[in-house]
Design a protein that fits this description.
Layout (H helix, E strand, L loop, with lengths): L3 E11 L6 E11 L3 H11 L8 E9 L3 E3 L6 E12 L6 E12 L2 H11 L6 E8 L2 E5 L22 H11 L1
Parallel strand pairs: 2-8, 4-6
Antiparallel strand pairs: 1-2, 1-3, 5-6, 5-7
């Protein structure tokens, strides 16, 4: 499961048909490993979208099981899904709920795109669809055909004695 963060950004936005500006708060979703990385990526990516000064005023971890982007979508929808799992030992059914973020034109389109993306998942149903306040999603790595995918997992395994000895040897 991806780690995603919703970053709230505050800035002055020009009012159409006027020379005045109003202060707005907007939410952007970043796929990142840590809060710090999400904030750093916000300050790197958002100047392409926002003109003028802005400030990241809040960062919170988002709990989306999957993000379903598309080219022609206009709004991000939170689609709550429910899966039926059967416990192998007891034989009892268990419902597991997850939220999927889907980019679509309207609610019907969001349902259709979610059904299409999860069509290989057995026994799931859509419980609710709500429009999200997220304006854009920034995946961890932009897809480039000429670059191999980077391994972004942090190794949490303990170092072996040989690795420790080699590290100590390189310091001397």
């Amino acid at each position: 499961m991806q780690t995603m963060f919703e970053c709230t950004v505050r800035y002055s936005k020009p009012i159409e048909g006027s020379d005045k500006q109003k202060r707005v708060n907007e939410v952007y979703l970043f796929d990142a490993l840590t809060y710090t990385e999400a904030e750093k990526r916000a300050y790197e990516k958002l100047p392409e979208i926002i003109s003028g000064d802005f400030m990241v005023t809040g960062i919170r971890k988002a709990r989306y099981a999957e993000v379903i982007p598309c080219e022609e979508g206009g709004y991000w929808y939170k689609v709550k899904t429910s899966f039926i799992l059967v416990d192998e030992n007891s034989g009892k059914e268990k419902r597991v709920s997850q939220t999927v973020l889907t980019l679509a034109e309207d609610i019907k389109d969001a349902i259709d795109r979610t059904n299409e993306a999860l069509n290989d998942t057995p026994d799931f149903m859509i419980k609710a669809v709500n429009e999200s306040n997220i304006l854009d999603f920034f995946p961890y790595m932009e897809k480039h055909d000429d670059e191999p995918p980077a391994d972004r997992e942090i190794s949490r395994r303990p170092a072996t004695e040989a690795e420790l000895a080699a590290a100590m040897q390189s310091r001397q």
